[in-house]
Amino acid sequence: MPAVSSSTKYDVIVIGGGHNGLTNAAYLAKAGKKVLVLERRHVLGGAACTEEVFPGFKFSVCSYVVSLLRPEIIRDLDLPRHGLEILPLDGTFTPMPNGDHLWRVNDHGKTHREIARHSRVDAEAYDEFGKAMQAMCRFVKPILSMIPPDPATLNPRELMKLVFIGRRFQGMSSEDKYNQVQLMTMSAIDFLDQWFETDVLKATMSASGIIGTFLGVRSPGTAYVLLHHYMGEIDGAFRAWGFARGGTGAISNAIADAAREAGAEIRTEAAIAKILVKNGRATGVVLANGDEIYADVVSSSVDPRLTFTKMIEPGNLPDEFMDGVRRYKFRGSSGKVNMALDGLPNFKCMPGVGAHLRGAMSISPSVEYMEKAYDEAKYGHWSSHPYIDMVIPTLTDTSLAPPGKHILSCFVQYAPYKLAPGFDWDTEKENFGDAVVNTIAEYAPNIKDIILHRQVVTPLDLEREWGLSEGNIFQGELSLEQLFFLRPVAGWAQFRSPIKNLYMCGSATHPGGGIMGAPGRLAALEILKDGGA
What we know:
Elements: E1 5-15, H1 19-30, E2 35-38, E3 50-54, E4 57-60, H2 71-76, E5 86-88, E6 92-95, E7 101-104, H3 108-118, H4 120-144, H5 156-170, H6 174-185, H7 188-193, H8 199-206, H9 222-230, E8 233-234, E9 237-238, E10 242-244, H10 249-261, E11 265-267, E12 272-278, E13 281-287, E14 292-300, H11 304-310, H12 319-327, E15 334-341, E16 360-363, H13 367-378, E17 387-391, E18 406-413, H14 425-441, H15 447-450, E19 451-457, H16 459-466, E20 502-504, H17 518-529
Parallel strand pairs: 1-2, 1-14, 2-11, 6-16, 14-20
Antiparallel strand pairs: 3-4, 5-10, 6-7, 8-9, 12-13, 13-14, 15-18, 15-19, 16-17, 17-18
């Protein structure tokens, strides 16, 4: 069947209707560009989506909490007016096998007393740690809004960016400088060992250092990932995490509404088969149904593997660039288990319904537990006793489930994309789900009795359904060699590609993953700087 050409030509086609692609489109549309967003799935949001998986139960199927969404995006797009409402997530509750627990909340005094119950030394150190991390965040945060410099160029503007970073570093105290260098090089546990002695505290805090990486809590480089998650910001408050009312899809839908209001056109169920390239320049796309749509600029929010190896015909990109794309590491290591519940879990260490169920519940009882979970993954097996981060959003947002029912959302690590020979995710999927439920049951025995429905999402599912290569939730690991001016390919970290007018705007670009929106915004600013079409 011959291809059908669209009679309408756009200034920009954005590939992918995830939150970064939608942010990219909204900024470009607000600047007066004629923008078309093409999303493969039936629902917007990419991994930041809300879906009614079981009748009456609406899940944030993949991403489930928000903290990194940039305040300038909330402000520029006026997202509250488009329905965005963030509900605070208060604290982290860690049950322990010996019947004790650790429960840190947003109330400083309560948290200080709770940690002092385990260690008075750690309670005092916790205050100092918080101050040190805020200093680190103040140094790093402006970099999140910066176009990465190219250190290999002699362009004075690029060199001035490096000078700016250098001056900021020199302006820090000696202690903060040492902390910053350690954060960029040490493991999460080695860094935390310098501050704390309580095992369960270090284990729970170190968990932030392994999210989205195929690394253990003792692996060098995980201290930076800990900082990346520590920079959570809602209403200007460091380390503030929350739920979006209506699920994480409400964030994507608010951005989509802002984009539409500015004039952007958004289509779902519009899969891309190929990016059109003519004389070294992107000219449009071909849809899976054969339709051709033309534009002056193509902006891809999907990852580099999909963009450059699946959507571009061979021969259009330099070998050196493609070598960099092939070296880029994904190595998905996490899965999700979403449950519809007939009641609430009853923890042995703190029985009954209480405020501890309204925050995050972390199965991270010890450093040894966390490292053993990684040991199994290293050899190609899902963790039989995994790290699990659980939330019950229905205690804060009752609209997500029928009256009296609840949702339990479990982020699980480790679930390695590549399993050992003889194992595959299609057959291991439900076994993995069973391991998660069995692990929770060790702390909340009633969990098996109250599960109405269960959805297991493996790394293979994340790749097949959500287009996340190897199931990596950040479109590539947040490891040191894949950050800043090295993300995704050295020399190509400024959102452009070797193909003229083909840009990248997803989490595989600076500053990385999480429901942040910064890659989409920064890419839009670069497109506009280049003439935007």
